[in-house]
Amino acid sequence: MAEIKEGKHAGEWMAGAPNQDIWQKVGKVVSGESRVLVTGSIMMGGVNPGEFTEWAKAIDGSADPVGILFTGKVDATVADVPGVIIAVREVQANRAELTWPDAATAAEKLYAETVLAGVPHIVVQDSCTTA
């Protein structure tokens, strides 16, 4: 019998969050992405309000991450597509389930985690358990 492999499910990286009306932003992932994005991708704001793109790994404050992609799979390689971004507050993220930009360094990841913990208050930790 052939083995069936599932992709990541929407929000699989999340360990805890308050009421969904508080923490999710519906917007669009703008076209021009170099790859199909999956849930857990680190996102930054686009040119216009409500637009998002994959984080560009800038660690100088010029393009900070603003949230994490909740939607299961987003293909914005050719056209804008709707997406749900977790970008507000009090969300716990499992570090092992996040999807980083290609070749992101440890320093870049630490910078992104620090920024996410500060503004939208997304706490990234090694493992998340519920009591």
Describe this protein's structure.
The chain is of the alpha+beta class and 131 residues long. The chain has one domain (14-125): Head decoration protein D (Virus Head Decoration Protein, Chain: A, Beta Barrel). The chain has two helices and ten strands. The protein has helices at residues 20-23, 106-118; strands at 14-16, 24-29, 37-38, 42-45, 51-54, 65-69, 73-74, 81-86, 91-94, 122-125. Strands 2-5-4-6-8 form a five-stranded mixed barrel. A three-stranded mixed sheet has the order 1-9-10. The longest helix is centred in the C-terminal third of the chain and has 13 residues, at 106-118. The radius of gyration is 14 Å and the shape is globular. The mean pLDDT is 79.
CATH superfamily: Head decoration protein D
Run of helices and strands:
EHEEEEEEEEHE
What is the helical fraction, as a range of percent?
A: 10-25%
Query: Helix count, per DSSP?
Result: 2
Radius of gyration: 14 Å
Percent of residues in beta strands? 25-35%
- The first-level CATH class is given as Mainly Beta
N- to C-terminal distance: 38 Å
Shape: globular
Q: Largest sheet, order of strands side by side?
A: 2-5-4-6-8
Structural category is alpha+beta
